[in-house]
User: Fold these one by one.
Assistant:
Number 1:
Amino acid sequence: MADLERLRAAPSRRDFLLRATRTAGAAVLAPSLQGLVACASANTGNPNAASVPRRAGRGEGGYGELQPAGPELALPPGFTYSVLSRSGNVMTDGNPTPNAFDGMAAFALPNGNVRLIRNHENRDNPLTAKVKGNAERAYDRRAGGGCTSLEVRLAPDGSATLVRDFISLNGTIINCAGGPTPWGSWLSCEESTDGPVQGWGAQHGYIFEVPASAEDEVEAVPLKAMGRFVHEAVAVDPESGIVYETEDRFLAGFYRFIPNEQGRLRAGGRLQMLAIDGRRNVDLSQGQRTGVALRAVWVDIADPDRNSVWDSMGVFAQGYDRGGARFSRLEGCWYGDRSIFFHATDGGDAGLGQVWQYRPTHADGGELTLIFESPSADILDAPDNITVSPRGGIVMCEDGGGEQFIRGLTRDGRVFDFARNLINQDEFAGACFSPDGATLFVNIMGSTVDAGPSRGMTLAIRGPWQAGAL
């Protein structure tokens, strides 16, 4: 435990929130990520060396110079947008729309419309937080986080109209990211393990499930077998039903949950932490080489709901004691090409981010490969949400300083600006494409407390996607 105690004392880094949602383009995810490798190795031949980023102009994967498309966004020529939802507006269920718009996913509804399920990363404390919606359905009546669900109609001309919206999960805290499931639900993750000792009415740090078919608040059931820790994102392997989970903290593990019944997470299962075969407690946050496949194995977490009221490291400590590997700030996570891709937002020798690929090769393990490490803030700096377009390009929501951008990346590693926030310096989050790939939905977060001055909003962007990489 000496090494673990030393690591506990290490200072935490800035909390850059990375959310990723699976899109209709998941099938082309792996080829798209080769753009990251190409971007890193451009001009140097060394994937870990600093390089000058290549820009993609119009006709080269980009769409041209940004210009105001409305009061909120600057977009390339030919692109337009509409605002579907703003915090504070009254929803169709009679509740005001909560603030702190965060992770999100899009689902096809039987009537042809699109369901958006959106997280709300409310960070009010137990004295100021207010439960949203029907308190009788809340997991914790003192907590102000949760999810809202939107039904959106997309017209043949590409215009988007909000049909209805409502609270779909309430009484949780700091709902950052999560991920969609193959069986049509959203897994919403709490990024805090606080509980009654800190003033809340219940223990937190769990994953909750919201079906896309829900038309009201769902029963808020914590999936305790999936672990109580500082959750960020999840990705589900549609073949095995295994759920992969990231942990957003300076000492972070990468986990998998093997359900007892595929598609029924409430039935329980087994939680495990990734380790490197033959190498105990490997620190993968620095000193790694791209392209090197490491033999990964999994170690069991005996008590996924360890009740250590002051220490959020109960799950991590169990896996670390059994030889588990350590990452730094694991955030976005998604499935594609029979692999799980996940990000360490401040990992790498430059502290600017890593992209990892885990490919299962047998039931008990697989290969872990570092496929990209950012060498320069000019290439990738504090990425927030990264998602893949149906056309194979990558959409990146950066959360750096100053102006906030959505940036695109082509398959051959060229970067370009796609959108700029014109109204404030709030981050973009929750980027996801509609099931038909014609509309990009994205959030501007807004304030993370109810009394904050900035309003969150959800936007729908449409335009000549085929003219570029996205």
Note: Residues 2-467 form a domain with the Neuraminidase fold (CATH 2.120.10.30).
Number 2:
Amino acid sequence: MSKNHSNKIVLISPPLSMDKQAGSLKDIAIVLPTLGIGYIAAVLEKNGFQVKIIDCIGDNLYPDDVLKILLDDPPDIIGFTATILTINAVINMSKMFRKRFPDTIFVIGGPHLTSLPEKTFEKGDFDMGIIGEGEFTLLELAREISKGGMNFKGIKGLVYRDNGNIIVNPPRPFAEDLDSIPFPARHLYPPLIKYKPVPASYKKLPVGLIISSRGCPYQCTFCDRKVFGNKFRIFLR
């Protein structure tokens, strides 16, 4: 990895075809912004970093399109978010982009990495990974890289490579005061009109979404609660 100082960060929500997302129901599939990277972007901007969001689903972009955007203004850090539906796309993009940006630091976060950090690193070309809530872990990482440091051992919630080994640091405690996190950086997303919420949830478009709470105390077998935990927390503002 490069030790160059880092100020430019690009956060990517990967492409997901309607066929893969909804199958035979693709004509009524919903298209929503990935608000998680919006909160991360807001925290980074608040602390002086230049941030760009590339929402492949909202802008109907494919990996070649993303590469062109990155080549126009190469970033110091590329961050991906991934779910079980998008992890293969993210892995392929990491390998594709690495060839053009060998010194850029590649970071992955989201539910898939949080559940399977070692396996995700074994398959993809990532330097760092963010487990759980990403706002303050990525901020701490960006600050360390920005000052030219390589001391990653003390950053809670971080996964990284060290001499070929995959290191998983202790988890970061969940944020107790959610109001310390700014509203998502909506100005970095495509226009709202490009998104399509559940038809029964609105009277007319465009529609803006919010996250009012994090964490869930219930134990549904189909749900992985590792990203936000089991404790119910709310935004009070």
Note: The mean pLDDT is 90.
Number 3:
Amino acid sequence: MLSPRDVANFAALCGQIGDELANESGFVAIRDLLVRFHTQILIRPLLVEGMLASIVDRRSGEGNAHRWTVLIDSETYPVTEADIAQETSNHPLPARLRNTVVHELVHSLVFRPSEFGIKLQLAAGSAENKHDLVRSIEQVTESLSPLLLLPEKALSKRLRGRSTQVSVEELDALREELAISRPLLISRLAQLSANQGAEMRDLPALRNMGIGIGEWTRDGTAVLRSWPLYINFENNIAPAIFRKLRHQDRVPAVSVFPDTAFAMMGGTDYTAQFVSDAGLLDNPASEKIPVVCAISKTRKSIGSAFIYVMRRPSSAGGINSLENIRKKFGNR
């Protein structure tokens, strides 16, 4: 199994590579990652979206050399190798393809850590340990991929030096500009408490707020997904819905929000204000706090996803105050 130290070393490596390859806006091109990982890409019909292969080159003058290759399914991703070579931030590859390639690149680390200066804490010659290692790297791959595609450089540029909380519109703009998926974006933010970007979590832009993914249903309302979640409220007093999502997926919006005009409830408003039960993990309804929730302005097509931001307003007065929201919706 990978030790916590191994995971930390892989995370530091991926974070370093992401920052090194990012352009001024924070965009990381897939072709640059392939070069950095000494890996080629082949687009062929496959039975899976992507896979990692090691091709033995017996013609090498240094013995049997391995050439690492990422194989991509041509039916899932109708792109050419020229598309990959010519990728720019203005004309990026599809976010899903980018994540698939990076996922396989991260997989390759376990087979050649010494190439990147990492020495694993693993007993040599143990087939069982090797099997556990491969299984362990699969479990952490999804936490390492965001470090390559959303480097700290990109976050720092957008979050530092501001006094206001980040908006859902800004998160959507960041996702589109860097060609990353919603889960990858939120997963990267959630990692700030565990990696070298921990102090960024304390910036005003990311405090007293939670970020997650909603999904539209057949009746025009929404459900809230249990993963991924970014949760960062003062003194860990978070709205009760975030505690519930730790144990239940696809929570119906109608069980969370009191305002029927809110889009997640079937209405047309993309922002809602309400009073929420809140508390710690072991007592999620110990108090009530004012909350504002805003969602992406997406089409309500069945199964499509969107980002939501639930925040505790910084203002103590006006329409965001607890007293005024209670007057509108009661104590719910």
Note: The two ends are 47 Å apart (CA to CA).
